[in-house]
From TrEMBL:
Enzyme kind, highest EC tier: hydrolase
Keywords associated with the record: Hydrolase, Metal-binding, Protease, Thiol protease, Ubl conjugation pathway, Zinc, Zinc-finger
Molecular-function GO terms, alphabetical: cysteine-type deubiquitinase activity; zinc ion binding
USP domain segment(s): 109-461
UBP-type domain residues: 1-71
InterPro entries xrefs: Papain-like_cys_pep_sf (IPR038765), Peptidase_C19_UCH (IPR001394), Ub_carboxyl-term_hydrolase (IPR050185), USP (IPR028889), USP_CS (IPR018200), Znf_RING/FYVE/PHD (IPR013083), Znf_UBP (IPR001607)
Similarity comment: Belongs to the peptidase C19 family.
Superkingdom: Eukaryota
SUPFAM superfamilies noted in UniProt: Cysteine proteinases (SSF54001), RING/U-box (SSF57850)
Species annotation: Nothocercus nigrocapillus
Reactions catalysed, as given in the entry: Thiol-dependent hydrolysis of ester, thioester, amide, peptide and isopeptide bonds formed by the C-terminal Gly of ubiquitin (a 76-residue protein attached to proteins as an intracellular targeting signal)
EC number(s) reported in the record: 3.4.19.12
Protein's name in the database: Ubiquitin carboxyl-terminal hydrolase
């Protein structure tokens, strides 16, 4: 039987010899639950928490392996034929494949779903299309995680191994290098997912996860690992040599700067004013993304074609985030002058904008019993998002430094955070693509702007060009 992309088979009295495992006679005669990886055909025993090296006397492992290989070859051939037929018959794709008068081939690579891993695939595809961030990792030298007798073998990660045997940076680098090669229709990120399970316990298992939460955990762990280097290799030197980012462009979060903070890092100024004595408190908070509420007056709007009232825009969400607000009774401010908690107001200013502005629309809200989704359509610009009016000192910014162009959008399809499906739209070399796990299709701007965005990635504009401002 198949569960989450893996084939499971129960063996009774299977006598499967295990590596690094001293078995008793009783252990050899119990039922073992074994999982076989559909990509590498490695076999793993849940009871022994180790990989199977030798087969059973009846050759049961080899029989399952051969069966999986036949299924994989059949599925790959069918998928490749379907994609070729789609490209040949689709007039939209035929038109979009013509760039500068010449026809080019679709070179995008999808990511296989390993069992409700669409949340991870959507984030990975979005990050792979943020060129400055992606190129940094692709230019990193490969890290050999094993040596000696195990050199050259594929690295597997189990719960019994230590944390020093895995590298999120290395597996992230390998995944990015596998995308946009045009050598395969889909890449299986199982090695990266193994590392995610190892170092991010919240994402173990095959249940649906929140894409924004995964993105934050991923960036935080990449940042921490890059600070310390891996196997004695310092990443800070590579950051200075390869990223082309000066110290003034870096934003330190939890220690030394890395490419994560250099690209996504910004700074907020949080102003709190006591309504009783007027005392003002200021605090600077670094951020990697901004989480924006959808204003309550728009939360009942469910379609793009609004019939009753104005349409919600990204500017409405940004204004709601930065406008002055009075804190409610549950958020009373401890005034140092009054020496007690008092009513107060709060306001956010952006003190420093990042190179890549990540905006998360808060579509999931807890009620008394469950977490509901705000399905409101939010209008967002593809080009020319102007952030100057939200800056603390706009007069110190250049004319182009506050303008952002859209690079990627993550969309959640469905009604709840624990269900539904994630896909992503991203632009690559002037063309928009829709990433739906293994399937990647060309699309147009009209389709992208109709999407009910969940996470938006905007890249700071470098060169002057005409655009409509938000």
């Amino acid at each position: 039987r198949y569960v989450n992309g893996h084939a499971k088979k129960h063996y009774e009295d299977a006598q499967i010899p295990m590596t690094n495992h001293k078995k008793t006679e009783k252990q050899e005669k119990v039922q073992h639950t074994v999982c076989m990886d559909c990509s590498s055909y490695s076999t793993y025993c849940y009871r022994c928490d180790d990989f199977v090296v030798n087969d059973t006397k009846l050759g049961l492992v080899q029989k399952v392996r051969e069966h999986l290989q036949n299924l994989e070859n059949s599925a790959f051939t069918s998928d490749r034929h379907r994609k070729r037929k789609l490209l040949e018959n689709s007039s939209l794709n035929s038109k979009l494949l013509k760039v500068n008068g010449s026809t080019t081939a679709l070179c995008a690579t999808g990511l296989r779903n390993l069992g409700n891993t669409c949340f991870m695939n959507a984030i990975l595809q979005s990050l792979s299309n943020i060129q400055q961030f992606c190129c940094y990792f692709k230019e990193l030298p490969a890290v050999e995680l094993r040596n000696g007798k195990t050199a050259g073998r594929r690295t597997y990660h189990t719960r019994s191994q230590g944390d020093n045997n895995v590298s999120l940076v290395e597996e992230f680098r390998k995944t990015l290098c596998a995308l946009w090669q045009g050598s395969q229709t889909a890449f299986s990120p199982e090695s990266l997912f193994y590392v995610v399970w190892k170092i991010m316990p919240n994402f173990r298992g095959y249940q649906q996860q929140d894409a924004h939460e995964f993105m934050r955990y991923l960036l935080d762990h990449l940042h921490l690992e890059l600070q310390g280097g891996f196997n004695g290799v310092s990443r800070s030197v590579i950051l200075q040599e390869n990223s082309g980012l000066s110290a003034s462009n870096k934003c330190c979060i939890n220690g030394a700067s890395t490419v994560v903070t250099a690209i996504f890092g910004g700074i907020l100024q949080n102003e709190v004013n006591c309504l009783i004595c007027g005392t003002e408190s200021r605090k600077f908070d670094p951020f990697l993304d901004l989480s924006l509420d959808i204003p309550s007056q728009f939360r009942n709007k469910r379609t793009k074609n609004q019939e009753n009232g104005p349409m919600c825009t990204l500017r409405d969400c940004l204004r709601s985030f930065t406008d002055l607000e009075e804190l409610d009774e549950t958020e009373l401010y401890m005034c140092h002058k009054c020496k007690k908690k008092q009513k107060s107001t709060k306001k956010f200013w952006i003190q420093k904008l990042p190179k890549v502005l990540c905006l998360h629309l808060k579509r999931f809200h807890w009620t008394a019993y469950l977490r509901n989704k705000v399905d409101t359509y939010v209008e967002f610009p593809l080009r020319g998002l102007d952030m100057k009016c939200y800056l603390l000192e706009p007069e110190n910014s250049g004319p182009e430094s506050c303008l952002y162009d859209l690079a990627a959008v993550v969309v959640h399809h469905g009604s709840g955070v624990g269900s539904g499906h994630y896909t992503a739209y991203a632009t690559h070399e002037g063309r928009w693509f829709h990433f739906n796990d293994s399937t990647v299709t060309l699309t147009d701007e009209e389709t992208v702007v109709k999407a009910k965005a969940y996470i938006l990635f905007y890249v700071e504009r470098q060169a002057k060009s005409g655009s409509d401002k938000l």
